[in-house]
Amino acid sequence: MNADWMRDERPRLAAERILDVAAQLYVENGITAVGMADVARAAGCSRATLYRYFDGRQALQLAFVHREARRIGALVAEEVSGTADPKDAIVDAMLAAIRLVRADPALAAWFQLGDSGLAAQLAHSSDVIESLGAAFLGRAGFSGEETSRKARWIVRIIVSLLTVPGIDDTDERTMLEQFVAPTLAAHDADERDARSI
């Protein structure tokens, strides 16, 4: 592969292209098996060039996760924008996120046996993912001082269902409707009541 694209395009576009190459390698080899040398070789550049864009393997993985989280977040927000009931909105959003991740081989690779621990670790420590979750909770009508904590909890549930799926789509929907939505709604109501006292 010719590396001229790295010199001719702006740095942001070069970084995007590197992330695209990494995504393909993640699908083909699994997340933990892909090193910086693999990405550099597939991108047609030197490791030194790759390190100008990402200071290491974890930075590359995190950049990929953040890019995809923003993309999935936008698709989920668009998909559930007309849902009025907050409980329905959160269930629909969580199911949409799960469906979109499962449908994308580059994202589904993160939840394969052996790689799911890395996905969980990155998801739980990601400020971008937490911010997206908190923003969605606000748009869905959930509020309160613990929005950030609620967002982290929702991410954990999504990661859990991606790692260990329910019996089928109906089972997953039922679990979210029965356990997650009422818990969020009750906690939100308790926070509103506490503030009004």
For this entry, give a set of tags.
HTH-type_TetR-like_transc_reg; 2 domains; mainly alpha; elongated; HTH_TetR; DNA-binding transcription factor activity; Arc Repressor Mutant, subunit A; 197 residues; Transcriptional regulator, TetR family; DNA-binding; single chain
Short description:
This protein is mostly helical.
SSE arrangement:
Layout: H1 4-8, H2 11-29, H3 36-43, H4 47-53, H5 57-79, H6 86-103, H7 105-108, H8 116-124, H9 127-139, H10 147-163, H11 169-196
InterPro entries: Homeodomain-like_sf (IPR009057), HTH-type_TetR-like_transc_reg (IPR050109), HTH_TetR (IPR001647)
Organism: Rhodococcus wratislaviensis (Tsukamurella wratislaviensis)
Domain HTH tetR-type: 12-72
Compute the gyration radius: what is it?
19 Å
Average pLDDT across residues?
Answer: 86
Instruction: Classify the secondary structure makeup into a structural class.
Output: mainly alpha
How many DSSP helices?
Answer: 11
Q: How would you characterize the overall build of this protein?
A:
With 197 residues, the chain is an all-alpha fold. The protein folds into two domains: 4-55, Arc Repressor Mutant, subunit A (Orthogonal Bundle); 64-196. The chain is 77% helix and 0% strand. It has eleven helices and no strands. Helix 2 (11-29) packs across helix 3 (36-43) and helix 6 (86-103) packs across helix 10. The chain is elongated. The model has no long low-confidence stretch (mean pLDDT 86). Residues 12-72 form the HTH tetR-type domain. This is Transcriptional regulator, TetR family. Residues 35-54 bind DNA. GO terms for molecular function: DNA-binding transcription factor activity; transcription cis-regulatory region binding. It comes from Rhodococcus wratislaviensis (Tsukamurella wratislaviensis).
